[in-house]
Amino acid sequence: xxxxxxxxxxxxxxxxxxxxxxxxxxxxxxxxxxxxxxxxxxxxxxxxxxxxxxxxxxxxxxxxxxxxxxxxxxxxxxxxxxxxxxxxxxxxxxxxxxxxxxxxxxxxxxxxxxxxxxxxxxxxxxxxxxxxxxxxxxxxxxxxxxxxxxxxxxxxxxxxxxxxxxxxxxxxxxxxxxxxxxxxxxxxxxxxxxxxxxxxxxxxxxxxx
Length: 209
Known about the structure:
The chain is of the alpha+beta class and 209 residues long. It folds into 2 domains: 9-43 and 121-204, Outer membrane lipoprotein wza fold like (Roll), CATH 3.10.560; 52-116, wza like fold (2-Layer Sandwich).
């Protein structure tokens, strides 16, 4: 029997713990460390399930096509079925398509243009709990906590924003940090803003009283 890894169990456990202590204590987690507050995160976007793409074949309009990466991470063109797309950059996928087309087209030149973005989970930023619209947001370079909160429409009236936490995997370890969302959003304290990393999880608990 195959064992199934469940990487979200630990973040879920942290979420439940935060929900239990919210409303009756101050944030028990340290703030985001100084070396991570304003660091520039450099990364290459990789294609994920749900991404919309155009496959452009230079000089061969008949083979130019558009489509969406399936939930299994694969993509079908007009010549080749079930190309693995998820987890690859657009350049890597273009080279794979050129190789696959080499049986049918001499010296095919292919470009992959990503039209809409979902991304893979490790390149998304997720918000759960008392956000107005809890969801997963594709990570953008230079993305900040304020950008994320705008994307999710802020917090509900029942949110304990200064007891929110950030779960981050960084340099092979997983850390949990305290956030000051009330200070950032409701008081306009920009010092509470932090740089986000791909894969970050923000948990906003409910204020019980």
